[in-house]
Amino acid sequence: MAAAASDPTLRTSLERHLDQTRVQAQRLESLFLELDGAPGGHTCQAMRGLIAEGDAWLRQTAPAAVRDAGLIACAQRVEHYEISAYGTAAALAATLRLHHHAELLRFSEREEQDADLTLSAVATPVNRAAAQTTAV
Ligand SMILES: [Fe+2]
């Protein structure tokens, strides 16, 4: 998604969050290892669908600003799903009195919320540019 972004601020935001996502994945792996579990045994079909939606959007031909606006919409759907997933996992960990794990999951949840807020801020000028591109 980052490579497909035309707006430099959007591209930078997506690249930064990709780096953050890699750290989150390492965090999840360490949580699984602490619980004697093995990460990676399940593919989330909902997330796979959201990614497929993004891929389908990127195959569309559209002016750069419109393409970026759609890219933000696709990315925010992913962030919202991640916020939900991390929030649920943190709540379950807290219920199981795995407070250290709950804290780490809440940290990832907050990172996702921040990524969503950043995308919303980037969306304002991008959406405005997209609207001007498509104005009749
Ligand atoms: Fe994310």
Explain this structure to me?
This protein has 136 residues and is mainly alpha-helical. It has a domain at 46-136. 80% of the residues lie in helices and 0% in strands. It has helices spanning 8-34, 45-58, 64-95, 99-134. α1 runs antiparallel to α4 (99-134), α2 packs antiparallel against α3 and α3 runs antiparallel to α4. The structure holds fe (ii) ion. Fe (ii) ion binds at residues 17, 21, 79, 82, 112, 115. Fe (ii) ion (FE2) binds next to α1, α3 and α4.
How much β-strand is present in the residues?
under 5%
Distance between the termini: 29 Å
Number of helical segments with 4 or more residues: 4
Classification by helices and strands: mainly alpha
Bound heterogens, unique: fe (ii) ion
* Helix percent band: over 70%
Largest sheet: none
Query: Assembly type of the shown chains?
Result: single chain
Gyration radius, to the nearest Å?
Answer: 17 Å
Shape: elongated
What topology does this entry show?
Elements: H1 8-34, H2 45-58, H3 64-95, H4 99-134
The chain binds fe (ii) ion.
Fe (ii) ion is lined by residues 17, 21, 79, 82, 112, 115.
Features:
single chain; 136 residues; mainly alpha; 80% helix; 0% strand; elongated; binds fe (ii) ion
Could you give a quick summary of the protein structure above?
With 136 residues, the chain is mostly helical. The protein is built from four helices and no strands.
